[in-house]
Amino acid sequence: GFCTNLLLLQTPENILAQTKSKTEIFCELKKEHAGVYWYRWSQERQNFEFLIFSSLLGKATYGTNISQDKFSVHGGSSHTTYSLHISHLHASDNGTYYCSVSQSSQLLLGSGTRLGVVDVLPLTQKTTQAPSSKKPMWCLTKRKAYSKKGACSPLVWVPLAASVLVLLLSLVPTAHRFYRLRRRLWLRIHRQ
């Protein structure tokens, strides 16, 4: 679902960075929270991955197989501004990054920052710091967000599963017809 209350302001919208360099994503909270979570959606791997949680005290908790050398979070003195630092950029870092806070057993996500990592930057474009936009945020339950398979809601997978089932059922008569034709052909060959 989408939230109408914009509690997080995430900037920039897009970043294009060079391999082996570093970048930074900013997240501003409208009010103080216990800390901020960072997630990455990978289009290539089709998964929503927990990267790091940074508490008010600055203590970091990392996700499974997440390098502490690559990711770090810096918090402002106001406890409402955070920035995710990503170093040693590689093509595997491509994806959309989300800052997130927990509220009423839900995770409220920012609008996302799309990171593209390339070997050579185009001459006309450097690392982009686009102005922020006021897009609505996704709301995910914590259970869904921690799932390794990602936050795929029933609104997506139920129609998808139904379509696959219909497709499989439509193949049954075709397979039966093919079997009968093959049987007839076999009988003709053996009669001669």
Automatic annotation (TrEMBL):
One of its GO terms (molecular function) is MHC class I protein binding. It is found in: Membrane. Residues 12-110 form the Ig-like domain. Signal peptide: none annotated. GO terms for biological process: adaptive immune response; regulation of immune response. The keyword Hydrolase does not apply. It holds the Pfam family V-set. Keywords: Adaptive immunity, Disulfide bond, Glycoprotein, Immunity, Immunoglobulin domain, Membrane, Signal, Transmembrane, Transmembrane helix. Its main location: membrane. InterPro entries: CD8B, Ig-like_dom, Ig-like_dom_sf, Ig-like_fold, Ig_sub, Ig_V-set. It comes from the Eukaryota. It is a single-pass type I membrane protein. GO terms for cellular component: cell surface; membrane. The chain crosses the membrane at residues 156-179. PANTHER family: T-CELL SURFACE GLYCOPROTEIN CD8 BETA CHAIN, T-CELL SURFACE GLYCOPROTEIN CD8 BETA CHAIN-RELATED. This is CD8B protein. It comes from Rynchops niger (Black skimmer). The gene is Cd8b.
